């Protein structure tokens, strides 16, 4: 993404706003989102489907970034969202997002969460296991409510990604296993429940996927499964949900595929597999690919440690508390010095966080210009799983979040204060 950056007067510009001005106004660390980039990515997914003449839905996987403001942007862009907890559902509802366009995911939804979803008449509950079928069935019976559901399947397809990001293989905590006939048993239970309307089937094979082969295999497998369900139960799905996992470029080693390429290859596979049948409506659940490239995290550079014959450590005023992914997944990012955009890189350093962990290294090897304390470092492509996974380790407050669009900036999440940190503490 570095080649796509814009600068003015030696400063990084984000959505037409000077990043240095943002730091002066809101402080650091600071999450900044270019909202136009989010809207443009949604339009690319929509355009790709429309070109293939398929019925479709884009369902934003909001676990990537879930605050009221992003749900309001998704409402403006007329897409669905999926939530994975009562907290995400509550946030979406409080943001005014229409409940009929919400899908509720999760492998261990509580009774309270399911009841909340039923009372608010969410558009879809994606069933993950037999316990959940029984729990939801009882809730629907007790409340005399009906709801649309979908079965999440594990089709036995593994994506080429980090092992913690693989979710479609048979040995997974998610979904009904196809190979052992669990999926058929779940189908029988749902079809026999008078309060559930089975909308279709769902699978998700992983995250940060760069190739199309896994998605093509998934598309064919889901149609094959549907044909078997039609033979066994006379049921043909209205919807096939192929999940998300479309990769983005965090650094020069990442080679993401354009949305139109993913969609065109998936569409070709579906059309081939459904030659003698109607093609169901196709849903996808992009999260990272919608918000990831639009996000920047701004820090102030502080201390520096120089070691003879080794890379120096340049520390910033944030770290694993606002971006856990480098420590958790060994995720690799790139950064620029936002107030020295036109200066030549003169050294390669470790970018270290301020947390009391040796593993708190945001970037292991980053080329930068000569820096001084107070310079501003911008880590790129942090829009996904930054704020949503942020924490208060070492009792550090979580950063503020700012949206920028058309040269205007707006605070959408206030910076936590020390008072916020102890607001739930009680005296002993």
Automatic annotation (TrEMBL):
The protein's matches in InterPro entries, at most eight in alphabetical order, are given as: Ala_racemase/Decarboxylase_C, DAP_deCOOHase_LysA, De-COase2_N, Orn/DAP/Arg_de-COase, PLP-binding_barrel
List, alphabetically, the CDD domains matched.
Answer: PLPDE_III_DapDC
**Cofactor requirements of the protein:** pyridoxal 5'-phosphate
The EC class name is lyase
Which organism encodes this protein?
Companilactobacillus alimentarius DSM 20249
What's the domain of life for this entry?
A: Bacteria
Q: Function of this protein?
A: Specifically catalyzes the decarboxylation of meso-diaminopimelate (meso-DAP) to L-lysine.
The entry marks the following residues as binding substrate, namely 288, 325, 329, 357, 385
Gene3D superfamilies per the record? Alanine racemase, Lyase, Ornithine Decarboxylase, Chain A, domain 1
Q: Which Pfam families match?
A: Orn_Arg_deC_N
Taking the record's annotation, the residue ranges forming a coiled coil are: none
User: Residues where N6-(pyridoxal phosphate)lysine occurs?
Assistant: 63
**All residue ranges annotated as the Orn/DAP/Arg decarboxylase 2 N-terminal domain in the record:** 37-291
Return the PANTHER family for the record. Answer: DIAMINOPIMELATE DECARBOXYLASE (PTHR43727), GROUP IV DECARBOXYLASE (PTHR43727:SF2)
- Could you tell me which pathway this protein works in? Amino-acid biosynthesis; L-lysine biosynthesis via DAP pathway; L-lysine from DL-2,6-diaminopimelate: step 1/1
Name listed for the protein in its UniProt record: Diaminopimelate decarboxylase
The active site of this protein is located at 356 (proton donor)
